[in-house]
Design brief:
10 strands, 319 residues, alpha/beta, five-stranded mixed β-sheet, 13 helices
């Protein structure tokens, strides 16, 4: 009996693998349209749709630095048809957003790294300074007068705001927004003074000269804005930090779906045109060894590192 049924089971699995996906896939982004994660998600969705033979539809569910969207995917049916564009804050939610009812490491599984995201400090044209050195002096002379806008509590740009406050002596007030796009809008309008934003979100405003870029937070200068100094050039190498975007899926998603999604992701990232476009937008592409296992190891190490940083920020705030 066992001998007769095993081939049928294997055949059924082969058919299941062959037909996936057989309907559109929803890619949830935890930020508003125009944010760094949204921009890369839409570029990726176009390429993956072509490769998978089914539409990958981007859906925005902003709030709590991406955690609202992450929670919705963590609770979704684990059938391979709902995936999430994860960013660092969703891996740190236990520190910042304890009320969000999901566990990143338990409820979501890795598919693959998408991009690394360099950040830039920009300043509103209304602020009476032109360089980072001048901005440090100005904010230091006026504690609490100036604001630093970020994409949300616990976000990488929030942590950079806090690190600049501590290490560079910029005693501003941190103001969280629902994403970099909203933060930049208020800097443009003079309602916020500074913002730490993903390069891709800030790039159009830098090109239009509607904000002043002061420093980038990455290893070396960013090619798309090569005239902007790296934070290390000012003696603050410890503040350097990349963000990241990665695809994850609900725990329990079939292994064949994870494998297919990872292959489609890497096929998209190997496309010459999309590589050029992402680099031009300011993203840093992942290494060729882009497997779910590699992402799992990265997430474990990155989460431990930044959880410690965030707890230190919280401790200082209570002192």
């Amino acid at each position: 009996m066992v001998g007769s049924t095993f081939p049928l089971a294997a055949m059924s699995t082969d058919v299941e693998i062959e037909v996936y996906p057989k309907r559109p896939i929803t890619l949830v982004v935890g930020f508003a349209p125009g944010d760094a994660a949204d921009v890369v998600a839409r570029q990726l969705a176009l390429q993956m749709s072509e490769d998978l033979g089914q539409k990958v539809v981007v859906t925005n569910r902003p709030g709590a630095a991406g955690n609202i969207g992450a929670a919705s995917v963590a609770k979704a049916e684990p059938d391979g048809y709902t995936i999430f564009m994860a960013v660092r804050p969703v891996a740190l939610h236990k520190v910042m957003y304890q009320q969000v009812a999901y566990d990143f490491s338990a409820d979501l599984v890795p598919v693959g790294m998408v991009v690394r995201v360099p950040y830039v400090l920009v300043m509103g044209k209304h602020v009476d300074a032109t360089t980072l050195r001048e901005a440090i002096a100005l904010t230091g002379e006026n504690p609490g007068k100036y604001t630093c806008a970020s994409g949300g509590l616990g976000s990488t740009n929030h942590l950079i705001c806090e690190a600049l406050k501590d290490k560079a002596g910029m005693p501003w007030v941190h103001v969280p927004y629902s994403g970099s796009a909203a933060a930049l809008t208020d800097v443009l309008g003079g309602r916020a003074d500074f913002a730490v934003a993903a390069v891709t979100a800030a790039l159009p405003h830098i090109a239009a000269e509607s904000v002043r870029p002061l420093a980038v937070f990455s290893d070396g200068r960013v090619p798309t804005i090569s005239n902007v100094p790296n934070i290390d050039e000012f003696g603050f190498a410890e503040i350097s930090a990349h963000g990241w975007c990665a695809l994850v899926a609900p725990t329990g998603t079939p292994s064949h779906a994870i494998t297919r999604l990872n292959r489609s992701l890497n096929t998209a990232l190997a496309n010459v045109e999309i590589r050029k476009k992402l680099v031009r937008l300011g993203y840093v592409l992942p290494s060729p060894a882009n497997t779910p296992e590699a992402l799992e190891g990265f997430l474990k190490e990155d989460t431990e590192t930044w959880t410690d940083v965030l707890r230190e920020v919280q401790t200082r705030a209570l002192q």
